[in-house]
Write a structure and sequence with these properties.
This protein has about 240 residues and is α/β, with parallel strands linked by helices. The protein has one domain (about 5-235): Rossmann fold, CATH 3.40.50. It has 10 helices and 5 strands; from the N terminus they run βαβααβαβαααβααα. It has a 5-stranded parallel beta sheet with strand order 2-3-1-4-5, sandwiched between helices. Helix 5 packs across helix 10 and helix 7 (about 130-140) runs parallel beside helix 10 (about 220-235). The protein starts with a strand and ends in a 6-residue tail after the last helix.
Length: about 240
């Protein structure tokens, strides 16, 4: 079986931009958020906002894993997914299947960005606790710190961060993959409203949108922020530095 590289994410962390770069490489089969079907449709944790399920996609945890492994029989696989989709069921055997990697972002930014699109967002969907759980599992099964990318570092010096990422997961660094033509990938159709900016992008570029408020202006967001920040800081200390 070929290498399987997940990017375990928190929402609104430029993770789809990172995925777009992996599409541009051309040497990976790229799968977009495969376990979202399990979390929202099979486990039914919450009514999904903006999801347009595609026919034929597996909805069970086991079926999704089998789909990924089948793809890896043909070609190396990269998939981007939310850590909270699998954190309840992920164990050491599951994590051992992959070369696990992570992308983080300041929760002050992820919270407001998510809340703007879905005001019913929950602490679980912000995902820092779930992500840290997977991070610790990945570190335990390998005895090494997995690759952690911070979104802000990507915006400051994408070439340096991505080069280190590639070295960490033992794949070639392809600098030409850092820029691309605007294109809305068909793989994003199931979450179209969430990825319009990624479709318009041409590289790792700073989002200039002004949300008009911060976590300090919304009490429930401020409460979530206080819970997420310490977990973010723990992973930030282990990140790949530009």
């Amino acid at each position: 079986m070929n290498k399987i590289v997940p990017l375990w994410s928190v929402p609104r962390s430029i993770s789809t931009g990172f995925e777009r770069m992996m599409f541009e490489r051309g040497d990976f089969k790229v799968i977009h958020e495969p376990y979202g079907y399990f979390f929202y449709l099979e486990a039914a944790h919450k009514e999904p906002v903006g999801m347009q399920p595609q026919e034929g996609h597996p909805q069970t945890f086991e079926g999704t894993t089998e789909m990924i492994e089948a793809a890896a029989a043909e070609k190396p696989v990269f998939f981007k997914d939310m850590a909270y989709y699998v954190s309840d069921v992920a164990d050491e055997d599951f994590m051992k299947k992959f070369t696990n990697t992570f992308i983080i972002r300041d929760p002050a930014l992820t919270l407001v960005s998510y809340h703007k699109l879905d005001p019913t967002v929950t602490l679980r969907e912000i995902g820092f606790e779930s992500q840290y759980k997977l991070f610790e599992l990945a570190r335990k099964v390998t005895g090494e710190v997995p690759a952690v990318v911070d979104a802000e570092d990507l915006l400051i010096d994408a070439a340096s961060v991505v080069k280190q990422y590639c070295e960490k997961v033992d794949i070639p660094f392809l600098p030409e993959s850092l820029t691309w033509e605007p294109e809305f990938k068909s793989e994003w159709k199931d979450w179209e409203m969430w990825h319009l900016d990624a479709g318009d992008s041409t590289g790792f570029q700073r989002d200039m949108e002004d949300f008009g408020y911060t976590v300090d202006d919304v009490p429930e967001l401020k409460e979530m922020y206080e819970k997420c920040r310490p977990l973010y800081e723990k992973m930030y200390a282990e990140r790949l530095r530009p």
